[in-house]
Automatic annotation (TrEMBL), chain A:
Binds 1 Fe(3+) ion per subunit. Belongs to the rubredoxin family. Pfam families: Rubredoxin. One of its GO terms (biological process) is alkane catabolic process. It comes from Paenibacillus selenitireducens. GO terms for molecular function: electron transfer activity; iron ion binding. Residues 1-52 form the Rubredoxin-like domain. Fe cation binds at C6, C9, C39, C42. This is Rubredoxin.
Automatic annotation (TrEMBL), chain B:
One of its GO terms (molecular function) is oxidoreductase activity. Residues 4-293 form the FAD/NAD(P)-binding domain. This is FAD-dependent oxidoreductase. Keywords: FAD, Flavoprotein. Its cofactor is FAD. Residues 313-380 form the NADH-rubredoxin oxidoreductase C-terminal domain.
């Protein structure tokens, strides 16, 4: 599964970790996050994220 | 017995501490006191998105429902007037005396005041809190020319917001270049050019002498020249907000002195975020405040010994038709050497090396490309075996990555 980065702030969503603060289980793909999920660092929406190139 | 956890301040450190406490202690009372009139919000938006609706739910760090669900009590418009460390109590502006088992002070920082003749005239603003941003916006609504003092990231972001709102802007910076903390000379110079292309006047090494006007600002005297303007905003750094602990036994220096467990010099009292000084340094950074809040919260709830570790600083910049990121240590003077690559067509990447390790990078790319650099810095990958003079940055990054996978 791909990692996604928040373009305004640089926070990286790692599907292996999920987002425990919002009860997003480890193993949740970015695509499967709820549409109203927000960046835990800066509060931007999913549309501000891009796939990380590694 | 349920424990009482009191948190003074409503920034990002407070929210993360409350959350960490609740994770450890499902029973305890968590109370968050803040002088501002609303739930904790993303302060960064006050410069980045100045002209957006700052009362929108989108600006909040957590929505109201979250506090209900987590059973975290918030007390907006409530200043904590004093703390009695011996009795473990605090007194609020509502006149209540509240007992705490564990206390967290995260009162943040205030903007440093500009010391110049005329600073108290109408139309001069320095934005730290939401109501200040709103007052500034209301004041300049029917005005056109604004002077921004301070060429750090907050100032540059504010200027970008003003330009997008159609204002005529001048930026004044005391230092010889813009965003000197995050950028090297080349990228600073490029940023200046982009800002000027957007119609903004940039004055570096500005000696600010006087703010001019009767009651209201009409101009500013800089390097013996008067620049006419309708309003002035400034952002020239921050100072920890320690009023509450002045003349108490708590150890302070430039900030409230904490150890890496976020403990202050007083038992059962913790501090986190912009108000703290750790190892002689006041950070004043959003993501550091977030991490410190988490550590403080964990330790408050569990008598823990969780230790705060600095993450690698990352600055992302997307404004003035320029995308770049700056990560890690980018101060040439503290590095052994740097590797620069540019193609003359706008691509520019510079690696900063110290003790045969990659310690920092500045790149004119979207932050999407930042991951390999972050990994290399975090893994402290060695470049000792590489002939740096003969390799491209891409080749260096590839070698470092392979090395890391072995």
């Amino acid at each position: 599964m791909d990692k996604y980065i928040c373009i305004p702030c640089g926070y990286i969503y790692n599907p292996a970790v999920g987002d425990p603060d919002e009860d997003i289980e480890p193993g949740t793909a970015f695509e499967d996050l709820p549409e109203d999920w927000l960046c835990p660092v800066c509060g931007e929406g999913k549309d501000q994220f891009a796939k990380v190139t590694e | 017995m349920k424990k009482n956890y009191c948190i003074i301040g409503t920034g990002v450190a407070a929210v993360n501490a409350a959350k960490a406490i609740r994770d450890q202690d499902p029973e305890g009372n968590i109370m968050v006191f803040g002088a501002e009139d609303a739930l904790p919000y993303n302060r960064i938006k006050l410069s980045k998105d100045l002209f957006s609706d700052l009362r929108s739910d989108k600006v909040l760090i957590k929505k109201e429902k979250w506090y209900e669900k987590q059973q975290i009590q918030t007390f907006p418009n409530t200043r904590v007037e004093r703390i009695d460390f011996d009795q473990h109590t605090l007194v609020t502006s509502a006149g209540e005396c509240i007992a705490y088992d564990k206390l967290l002070i995260c009162t943040g920082a205030n903007n440093r005041k500009l010391m110049v003749d005329g600073i108290d005239k109408q139309g001069v603003y320095s934005i730290r809190e939401r109501h200040e941003a709103e007052e500034f916006k209301a004041y300049i609504e029917d005005k056109s020319s604004i002077v921004n003092i301070g060429g750090g990231i907050q100032g540059v972001e504010t200027v970008w917001s003003l330009v997008k709102a159609g204002k005529k802007v001048t930026i004044l910076e005391v230092a010889p270049r813009l965003m000197a903390r995050q950028l090297d000379e080349h990228t600073s110079e490029l940023l200046k050019k982009k800002i000027e292309d957007a119609g903004v006047q940039v004055h570096l090494q500005a000696n600010i002498q006087q703010i001019i006007g009767e009651d209201q600002v009409t101009g500013i005297l800089v390097n013996d020249n008067t620049i006419p303007c309708d309003s002035i905003t400034y952002a020239i750094g921050v100072i920890p907000n320690m009023d509450l602990v002045e003349n108490t036994a708590m150890k302070t220096c430039r900030g409230i002195v904490v150890n890496d467990r976020m403990e202050t010099s007083i038992a059962d009292v913790y501090a986190a975020g912009d108000v703290t000084e750790l190892n002689g340094v006041v950070e004043g950074l959003w993501d550091r405040a977030m991490d410190q809040g988490k550590i403080a919260g964990k330790n408050m709830a569990s008598m823990g010994t969780e230790v705060y570790q600095k993450t690698i600083p990352l600055t992302v910049f997307n404004a003035f038709d320029l995308s770049l990121f700056s990560m890690g240590l980018v101060d040439e003077a503290q590095c052994d050497t740097t590797l620069t690559e540019e193609d003359g067509a706008g691509k520019y990447t510079r690696l900063f090396l110290k003790d045969n390790q990659i310690v920092g990078v500045i790149s004119l790319e979207s932050v999407i490309a930042a991951a390999p650099y972050k990994a290399a810095i975090e893994n402290q990958a060695s470049v000792a075996e590489l002939n740096l003079n003969e390799l491209s940055i891409q080749e260096v990054m590839d070698s470092v990555k392979q090395g890391g996978n072995e």
